[in-house]
User: Fold this.
Amino acid sequence: MTGGDALRRVLPVLAALAVTAAPLALHLPGWVAALSAAMLLARGVLLWQQRQLPPRWLVALAVVVPLVLLWLTLRTLVGREGGSALLLLLVGFKAFETFSLRDWRVLLALGFFLAATPLLFDQSPLAAAWLVQSLLCLTWAMAALNGRQPLLASLRTTLQALLFSLPLMLVLFVVMPRLPGPLWGMPAADESANSGLAEDMAPGSISQLILNHEPVFTAVFAGPPPPRRDFYWRVMLFDRFDGSRWLNAGALTEPRGQTRGGIPVSYTLTVVPDKGRVPVLDLPGGVAEGLTERAGMVWQQARASDARIRFRADSRAGALLVEPLDAMQHAFYRFLPAGNERALALAASIRARSRDDEAYIRAVLEHFRLESFRYTLSPPPLSGAIVDQFLFETRQGFCEHYASALAFLARAAGIPSRVVVGYQGGEYNSAGEFWQIRSSDAHAWVEVWLASRQAWWRVDPTAAVSPDRIERGVEQAVPAARTAMPMLGGRPPEWMLALRQHWLAANFAWQQWVVGYDAGRQRSLFRSLGLGQEVDVPAVLKGLLAGAVLMVMPFLWWWRQQAKREPLQQGWLLLGRRLRRVEVVIAPSDTPAEVLLRAASLAEAEHGQLAALLEAYACLRYRTSGEASPEAVRCWLRAVRCFRPGRAMNGKTPAGRG
Amino acid sequence: MRFRNRLQAWLIRRQPESTEWTLRQQRIYLLPTTFGWTLLGVALAIWVGALNYAVSLAYALSFWIIGLLLVSVLMAYRQLAGLTLQAGAADPVFAGETAHFEVRLDNPSAWPRTLQGHLAGRAERAVGCQLPSRSSTWLSLPMTAEKRGLQAMPALALSSDVPFGLIRAFAYVRLREHVLVYPAPLRDGLRHGQGASGEGEAVLPAGEDEFSHLAAYRDGDTSRQIAWKVLARRDVLASKQFTGATAAGCRLLDWHDYPPGQGVESRLSWLAWRVLECERERCCYRLRLPGVEVGPQPHQRERALALLARFGALS
Amino acid sequence: MQSLAFAYRQLNALILGKNDAIKLALACLIARGHLLIEDVPGVGKTTLAHGLARVLGLDYRRVQFTSDLLPADIVGVNIFEREAGTFHFHRGPVFAQVLLADEINRASPKVQSALLEAMEERQVSVDGETHALPQPFFVIATQNPIEQAGTFPLPESQMDRFLMRIALGYPPPQAERALLLGEERRRVMDELVPALSPEQLQQLQAQASRLTVSPALADYVLALLQATRQERRFAQGLSPRAGLALVAAARAWALLEGRDYVLPDDVKAVFPAVAGHRLAAIVPGGDRVPGDELAALVAHVAIP
Assistant:
C-alpha cells in the first residue's frame, strides 16, 4: 500500500483511532495519551512523506520503555487503568508496523476495542455521544480502507449501515441476558471518589462535601414520599470517638435491630456504591438483593463494585430502631477517651437537672439553641480538645460539629450514643419525578439509646440550631453554600433552573434505562413485556423474535425505498408480473406494442383490455413533453391493478384508460 | 486451501452453463473475510468485558458492531444480487498470449455496484469494475492461452466485499463462451533462409486459378485502370501490390512440406508462422492441410489460422 | 396525411414486398434526410428513387457516377456567354428535387465530396458564388457493396451525411412471382400520379419536426446511444449528431404511422437504418452481419 491512493485509504484509519482514543486522555496518565497521540501523528507524517517505517525490531525494542514507565506509574498493566493504557500504547506502536492491508485492518479492529475502554471510566450521555462518533469514524475508516468507493460515497454508506444496525443493536441490548455479577474478580475501586463520604468523621470532613454539587444518587418513591423532615439516608455509622474524630470500630457485627412504628415507604435507589456502601432511607426493612445489612442498619454490597446499581427497598420513615444492648455493648457505646473536661462538666451539670435520659438530650439541644451557636460552613479550625473548643470557644460549626458534640455529651451522661453519617434531604425533579441527592446533602446526626424504650432514637442537633437545614436544605441554611454553587450569585434564573431540571431528568432516565440496565431491570422489563418471568432461553428467544420484526423494518423501508419508482414504472412492472402469471414473458426492451404481440395467447376479452391498458400507457408515457398528470396515472394504475389475466372475467371490467 | 478449492469446484459444478445469467440468491454465497472474523472476535471480547464490568454502553458497542456485520452481509449481497451477465466474444489469440473474455454486466438496479471478477482456478489477477445505477459495462477477463484450439471460458467468479471488507459476497457463473487459440507461430526451422523468398515454396503458376477475389486487395486503384486493363489485371495488380517483390504467383503452404516424422503441433506452428509471414508481405498464398484448403478470400488470415487452430478437432 | 398514405400505396404497388424499405425511404424524405441504398443491382433501387419522385410530384434527375466524372458535372459550371459578355451559371444535375446518385462509390473522392457538401449545406458554391438548391432536396445514393473493384468507398466521416442506409434485398418469393406475372414496371411507373405537392411535402416535414418527444423517449434514445458507446465491438459509439438524426427519423416514422407523438417502436423501426452505416464502417472484420449486431443491441436496451 503506497502512493496517494494508500494515503487516502489509510489516513482516515489514523484519524479515527485518534478520535476514538481522545476521551482516554481524561482518565489516563497524561504522558500515555500524549505519547500515543504523538505516535499516531508521526505515523501520519511518515505516510504523508512516504518514508520508510523503522524496522520491526526497533519498534519492538522501543515499546519496552513506555511499558516499564507505565508499570512504574500505575503499578499494574491490567485492570481498568492499566489495561486501557496498555491497549492505547499498543495501538500507538502497532501503527508503526503496519505494512499491508491486513495490518491496517488489525489496527482498525484494535480501534474498535479501544472505543470500549473510555466506557470503563465514564458512561454519561456525553461519553455515549463520543462513542457514537468514534464508531462512525471507525466505520468510515473501514470503508475508506477498503477503498472501493470515493470518500463521500463511503460516508453515506457508513451512515446507512450504522443506521440500519441501530435497531439490531437496540434489540440485542434489551434482550441479550445480563449477568447479575461479574465473571471474575473486579478490580477494586482504587481511589475514593471525591464526592464520597470519608472513612471517619472529623470536624470539617462533611462541610467540604457541601461545596460539591455532584449528584450522588437518585430515588424514586413508589407512593407519596415521606415528609421532608424524615429524609434521612443512612450510609455509615461511627461508634468510637478517639478524641479528635469519630470512627467505625465495628464492634457490633450482628445486625439485630428491628423497626417499630413509622410510615412505610417503598422506593428505588440508583447509586454508584461508595466502597460498597449504599444509602438507605431511615429506617430500612428487609435487605434488597445483592446487599447485606451491617450492624446499625446500614447497607453494604455483598461484593463491592463501583458499577452503578439500582435496588428496591422498603423503609419505615421515622421509625424507632429497637435493639437490646447487653452490658458490654452498653459500655462500648458509652466509651469516651480522656479529655474535654469542660464538656464533661457541662454534661454533668445538665444531667443533674434532667429527669431522665430523654430530658437530658432535650436539654442539651436546648443548650445548643439558646447559647449563641452558629451554623456555618466555614467554622474556625479546631485542634486538641475539639469538643471543648467547639462548645465553649468557637461555637460555630457544621452538622458534624454538632453531631460530634451531642454524641459526646450523651456519652458523658452515660447514655449510649453513636453518630450516623449519610444524606439529608434531596431535590425533587418534577420533570423526571425523582429525587436527586447530591454531595451537598451530606449530613451527620446522632442516635442515642434509650433504656426506657430499648431502642435507638434519632436526634439531629443541627435541627436545633438551624431548622432550615432540615426543612429546606443546605442552600437556604448556609449562604456560603449558595454562593459556592456553580451558578453565580443568589438564585439562578428560572429558565436556567428548568433547564437544569430537564438535564437532570434526562440524565436520570439515562442512568435508569441505559447505564443501569442490569439483570434486575432486564427481568422486570421482561415481565412487563410478558416475555417470561425470568431471563431464560425461551424468553430471550421470544424477545429476539419480537425484536426481529423491529430489526427488519428499516430494511423493508430501505428496500422499498430502492424499489420505489414512479407510478407509471410501477404499473408497468406490475403489468409484467401479471402477464408472467399467464406465461407471457416480457423482456425489458419490449415496447407496449411488442408486449401486445407477445400476449397474443390471451383470451380475446383480456387481450382487448390489455391493448387498452397498453395504449393508455403509451399515451401517458410518450404523448407528453413533460410529466403525465398524476390523476391520470393513478387512474391507469388502478386499472392495471384490476387487470388479472387468466381469471374468469365476471363482469369486472377495468376502466381502460386514464 | 485444499478444502477451499474443492468447495469451489463443487460450487462450480452445481452451475449449469449458459450464455446469460441473472444472479439470484441461490447462486450468491456470503462469507465473512478474515477481517470480518476479527471484528466479530473484537465484538465478543467487548461483550465479555461488558458482562464482567457491567458496562452497559459496552454492550451497546458490542451489539452495534454485530449489527454492522449483519448489515454488511446485506450490503455485500446487494452488490451482486440482480446483476445480469452475458457472454461476449473473445478475440482469437495465439497460444502463449493472453486472451480476453468479454463479459457484459448489466446493473438494472437503482444502486451502484462495485465488484471484481476473475476466472476461477486461474492465476490471473482479478479485474475490478464499478457499475453506476442502471448501467452496464464490459468486464475483460484475461487468461493466458496455453493450448491451441477452441478453449472454453473457465467459470467466472464474481465477488465483492464492499463497503467495509467485512463480508465477501461471491458467485460462480459458467458462461458459454469460447476463445479460439491459434497455434503459437514458430519460425520455420527446416526452411530457414528460404522462407520469405519463396524459392523453396511451391509457387502456383499464374492463370491456374481465378483471381476475382484479388480485386479486393486493390485499394486506391482508379476504376479507369480496371476498365482499360481488365485482361491484364494480373500484371497491374502485381505492380501495384508488390512493388519490387519477386513473388508473382501464389505460395502454397502445405502440410506435406515437412518430412513425415514431424509432430502435428510443430507443423501447425510452422504453418502459422508462414501464414503470418505471407500476410506481412501481403502476398498471395494458399494453405493446404490434409483434406482442407484455404485459398485467397476475404478474411483469409483468420480463416487460415482458425483452420490451424482447430486442426484435429474438426475431423 | 391521406395523400401520404396514397403515395405509400402507390409505391408499394410499384415495388412489391418491400413495404418497410419504402416506408423508411419515405420517412427519410420527411425527416429531410438523404438516403443511401446499398444493394446489388437489379433489385429496384432506381425504380424506388424514380417512383418516390413521381408520387411526391418532385422533379427527378439521375446521375450515373463513374470514375471520370468531374465535380462540375454534378454541381454545374460557369460558362462565358459571348453575347452577354458575362459568365452564366449552368446548373448541374444537383439542382433537382430528387437526385439519384447511382453507384456513388465509383466516382472519385473529389466528386463525392462535392456532392456530399451540397447535401449537407443544401447549396453549392461555384467560383465564390453561392447557389441555393431547390426545396425539398433529396439525394438517393446507391452503391454496390459486393463489387468493390476500383471503387472509392465513402469516407467514414462522410457516411453520416446520409440519414439512413437501407438495403432493398431480393423480393420475397410471393412478390417476385407477382413481379414476373404482373405488368411491366415501366408501365406501372408511368401510371403513378403525384399524391403530394412540394408545398404539402414541406408542410409534412414541418409537421414531423413538431411531433412530441417525451422525456421517457429521450431517455430511451440516450440509452441506445450509450449502449453503442459501451459496446466494445464498435470502435466508437454513435455521436450526438447521430442521436439527433435518430430522433428526427423516429418522428418521421411516427408521422407515417399517423401518430402525433413518438413511441420507442418508432425508434426501434428506424434504428438499424440510421445507426447501421454510422457504426458498420467501424466494425472490425467479423463474420457477423451488422444488422444482427444492431438487433442484439436494441434487444438489450431496456425501455425506460
